[in-house]
Design brief:
- There is one protein chain.
- The protein has one domain: Protein-Tyrosine Phosphatase, Chain A, CATH 3.90.190.
- The longest helix is centred in the last third of the chain and has 16 residues.
- Helix 3 runs antiparallel to helix 4 and helix 5 packs across helix 6.
- It is built from 6 helices and 5 strands.
- It has a 5-stranded parallel beta sheet with strand order 3-2-4-1-5, sandwiched between helices.
- The protein is α/β, with parallel strands linked by helices and 149 residues long.
- The radius of gyration is 14 Å and the shape is globular.
């Protein structure tokens, strides 16, 4: 079974993220942002999806695996403990559990990459999601970093 990848798009460009995914052999980009919009060019859902598909990647948005607003605020403050607590509570919701099950299926059947904003995976909810997926699938986690412009 292939590894499960993660990537954040902070401080880089769409082309560099897509390059990193293609070079790693990723086939499925799984967007785990609660709100798939961005002020960074190319990272809003419609354009991101079209750009990924143009590069041969399948795109899936799993809103239920995104961080609720209080968690995003904790992340911006650098409060990792609060982020973990808020996100842990959120993951008990029906939507989060359904989307987690969907992520596990994608990860077990393809070479997938979980994507959100934060560049540093150690201060990001995607590490929590990746762990939850890999606990069920037995995969290893590989954190990608796209080059800075």
């Amino acid at each position: 079974m292939p590894d499960l990848f993660t990537i954040g798009y902070e401080a880089t460009t769409l082309d560099r993220v897509l390059d990193a995914l293609v070079q790693a052999g990723v086939s499925d980009l799984v967007d785990i942002r609660a709100i798939p919009q961005s002020r960074k060019p190319g990272f809003s859902k419609c354009l991101l999806s079209a750009s990924a598909e143009a590069r041969g990647l399948r795109y899936t948005h799993l809103r239920g695996l995104g961080t609720p607003k209080p968690g995003r605020e904790a992340a911006r403050r650098g409060d990792d403990a609060a982020l973990a607590a808020i996100f842990g509570e959120h993951m008990r919701s029906d939507l989060a559990q359904a989307d987690l099950a969907h992520a596990r299926v994608i990860a077990s059947q393809t070479t997938a990459c979980l994507m959100c904003f934060e560049r540093d995976h150690t201060h990001c909810h995607r590490t929590i999601v990746a762990r939850l997926v890999c606990e069920a699938t037995g995969q290893e986690i590989r954190n990608l970093t796209a080059e800075r412009p």
